[in-house]
Design brief:
alpha+beta; 183 residues
């Protein structure tokens, strides 16, 4: 009998977790239309990720996990995705737009086949859950890596995260969010 050993590799990555806000309501309106739109949106996200040398590690339901080689690329991807989403919604969802909640972290992850595991993944998921619709929340590590590199403004927040206590995270300012998406 042959054992199934999965290859595990530790590497540094910037991790983006995206969740569609209010997706259950969108799906209830017309599930088939919702699935069709999800596939279009997924293709859009893949195209934008590729421009920033990122890739989709996995997607489940209305959520997506992506990996990038730099924090700047991850933040630029998220900002560009919101910008493109504004046009996408105008074309496909003018009455009930798709809105995203995005969390970004950086750190050492365990890559196992196409899956990513580890604390950065869990924190990115948590940040996405804490984000408001069309908000990008970055961990302190990401903010430190991009604060002087990108022409974006961030606002510090402190939120309680189960198991971690009070955690500093950084949101793109309202002016940046207004530029890129529906607020």
């Amino acid at each position: 009998m042959q054992k199934n050993h999965k290859k595990q590799v530790r590497r540094l990555a910037s991790v983006v977790f995206i969740n569609v806000a209010g997706s259950s309501k969108l799906a209830l309106q017309d599930e088939l239309e919702g699935i069709t739109l999800w596939v279009r949106y997924l293709n859009l996200a893949k195209k934008i990720a590729k421009k920033h040398d990122g890739n989709i590690a996995t997607n489940i339901g209305d959520s997506m996990l992506l990996a990038f080689s730099s924090a700047a690329a991850a933040v630029e991807f998220a900002s560009n995705l919101l910008s493109e989403l504004k046009d996408f919604n105008a074309m496909y969802r003018p009455k009930t737009p798709i809105r995203l909640k995005i969390g970004i972290t950086a750190g050492e992850v365990v890559a196992m086949n196409s899956d990513l595991l580890g604390t950065p993944v869990n924190l990115a998921m948590t940040l996405a859950s804490l984000a408001r619709a069309n908000e990008i929340l970055c961990s302190e590590a990401v903010w430190q890596l991009v604060a002087d590199e990108l022409p974006l403004k961030f606002q510090e927040k402190k939120q309680v995260v189960e198991g971690l206590g009070k955690v500093s995270n950084y949101s793109l300012t309202k002016q940046v969010r207004e530029k890129y998406a529906f607020v």
